[in-house]
From TrEMBL:
GO terms for molecular function: ATP binding; protein serine/threonine kinase activity. Keywords: ATP-binding, Kinase, Nucleotide-binding, Serine/threonine-protein kinase, Transferase. Transmembrane segments: none annotated. Residues 1-22 are annotated as: Disordered. It holds the Pfam family HATPase_c_2. PANTHER family: ANTI-SIGMA-F FACTOR RSBW (PTHR35526:SF3), ANTI-SIGMA-F FACTOR RSBW-RELATED (PTHR35526). Residues 21-136 form the Histidine kinase/HSP90-like ATPase domain. This is ATP-binding protein.
Amino acid sequence: MTSGAGDERTLSLTLRGSPAEEVSRAQSAVSEFLGRHGEGPAAISRAELLLEEVALNVLRHGFDAPDTPEVSIRLAREPAGWAFDFEDRGRPFDPTTAPLPPPAPSLAEAKVGGFGLPLIRRIAQSLRYERTEDGRNLFRLVLPPSDPLRS
């Protein structure tokens, strides 16, 4: 993971290599960054969860071998909340329109995986996806502002 130079209000990261290790390091950086900006444990946990869901899926499923998976992440405070911008050059995938898996009839019959998209859509305040002409995926999600009673 590399951390880019940014101002005090912006965190920039680039993840490549081992997905689990990279995402874990990125979660630590996001946790520390949000903590410095006064966010409480609940808001930090939501941010870490969204980061994990999006970044792991990009790194694990977004690229064909022998391409080296890489995703750039920018986190910044905006009036609407905390904006995560994810950018990669993997296969096109629009998480805002992808169909959700059908619910399992029971917990015992539930399959592992497939819960990321519903989770992202439920937690994030807004989602936006764009595939650029030069082959980049741009995905933005915004976490709602902290609720002091819940954070």
